[in-house]
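re the bet — no i am not wrong, look at it urself. input seq straight from the record:
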Amino acid sequence: MDIRLIATDLDGTLLRDDKSVSDYTKHILKLARRDGIALAITTGRPLMAIPEQLLAMDCFRYAVTSNGASVYDLQTGERLMECMLSREAVLQILEAVPGDVCIETLIDGIPYAPSEFVRDAGQFGLNESGAAYIRETRRPVSDIRSFILQNKHRLDCINAVPPSEGRAQELRARLAKIPGIYITHSGVTFIEISGTTNGKGQGLRFLSGHLNLPAEAVMAFGDAENDRDLLRAAGCSVAVSNAAPSLIREADTVTLSNEEDGVAVKIAEVFGYPRKLS
């Protein structure tokens, strides 16, 4: 197995539940980088919401963000690829999403959300960890729909947070009728809408081509529905054991959970690195 590019999702995959990265995982990633393996973050998060601890490690050279809407070279800061929502799609999305459903948007890798959502995301169904993440990463906007309309020509994506699973299913059905958008979710009531055709998979395919690597040289890790196309774009697809059952069934192989450093353990297995710190 001649792997030259490793792409990994963050939340629920590389990151532990408390959003930390273990010393063992850091060690293994540094060994891979030392050996010339290109490492890429592939996430639904925008660029500015990537944890600083990951960037400070200086292991990841690339980032596929906003579910494939953008690809960045983290070393140079260059945005290598962008796939923004069309103006027509933005208008149709706003029409499809009821006024009582919370929405947010991303511009140039920066997330903007309603002030009340940033202030107290718990009232929209997020747990304390999710609410803290929103507070730390979102820029508050007083009138999000007007803000979206003013910037409809430069949106990376739009996210919707319906109040229940039933409402989320209804909204996904309405959105599915809009041409030229990609709909996925990383949580039951967190719908992510972008202008890509294959989500993270499209971003990974672009990056593989940019590096002149065939799919067979790519290993990808994921755990959620928005990782499905990512895994399909890699020659070696790996699901962590805490992944959605459908993703586990589709992956080439399964590693340990995110709480057990599954990404690092699999990398160590493939490249012959130590299974634990000495």
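see?? The two ends are 26 Å apart (CA to CA). told u. also DSSP finds eleven helices and 14 strands in the chain. so pay up
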